[in-house]
Design brief:
Length: 61
């Protein structure tokens, strides 16, 4: 049985903005991974922070 595209059970993003298929990966400091998991809604907060970081002007850094 093959997977049907656009089926009724297809995952949809909460924000209405599609997510990239490939993840952003980086090495964190020791213990940060475990602490991050305790922050509510950490993935969306991190996505928002990355947008903020990218949109800053070089003079603001």
């Amino acid at each position: 049985m093959t997977f049907q595209e656009k089926n009724e059970y297809c995952w949809k993003p909460d924000s209405g903005v599609a997510l990239d298929k490939s993840p952003i990966c980086f090495k964190a400091r020791t213990g940060q991974k475990e602490e991050l998991k305790n922050v509510p809604d950490w993935q969306n907060k991190l996505r928002d922070y990355i947008d903020e970081l990218i949109n800053k002007k070089p003079s603001d850094l």
